[in-house]
Amino acid sequence: MDSTDTAEFEGFVHACAPSLIRLSYALCGDLGRAQDAAQTAFERVYQRWGKISDPWAYARRVAVNSTHDGWRSFTSRVTVGLQGDHPRFSFDPMEATNDKDEIIRALRELSHAQRAVLVLRYWQDLTEAETAAALGVSVGTVKTHGHRAMQRLRRILDVQGDAERKGVMS
């Protein structure tokens, strides 16, 4: 990678790290795993820099795959970062409102595929086609997972809301 490519990659990392960590956190609910997934994505993008047409889409797909339950089987880590002084990227889950916390807890009860569809479609604001490409599935699969996930999420949130209302009224 020449100096121009390195500068472009560093700009990419600066621009995308916060969003990639938020995406990963929404999928796995664990800040450490989310940061690891983002790091893995940046490592893979770095290895293929200049060969991939859409680094953000590629990074997103790697992060989604990396957050899948049981994904960690690393024995060693290579740290890809920016040289010299650079800001640390972090996502503080405590910044989330109670409503977001409730939604994240409910998302954890969905399958990884359903979580991925909802997070990409509604939090990352991707189209059905973009979500399908990010997950490596058909648009029909995205629609099915999205529909079933929303139904289940509504049931989960209704049950949680009923329990909270009963607790307040008791």
CATH evolutionary superfamily of the largest domain:
Winged helix-like DNA-binding domain superfamily/Winged helix DNA-binding domain
Annotated CATH topology of the largest domain: Arc Repressor Mutant, subunit A
* DSSP E strands, number: 0
Count of spatially separate domains: 2
What percent of the residues sit in helical stretches (DSSP H or I)?
Answer: 55-70%
Uncertain parts: 69-97
Would you identify the CATH architecture of the largest domain?
Answer: Orthogonal Bundle
**Termini gap:** 65 Å
Average pLDDT taken over every residue: 79
Shape: elongated
Percentage of β-strand residues:
under 5%
How would the blueprint of this fold be written?
Layout: H1 3-28, H2 31-48, H3 55-66, H4 98-107, H5 112-123, H6 128-135, H7 139-169
Tell me what you see in this structure.
The chain is built from 7 helices and no strands. With 170 residues, it is an all-alpha fold. The chain has 2 domains: 69 residues, no CATH class; 75 residues, Winged helix-like DNA-binding domain superfamily/Winged helix DNA-binding domain (Arc Repressor Mutant, subunit A, Orthogonal Bundle), CATH 1.10.10.10. Helix 1 runs parallel beside helix 3, helix 3 packs across helix 6 and helix 5 packs across helix 6. The longest helix is centred in the last third of the chain and has 31 residues. It is elongated and about 60 Å long.
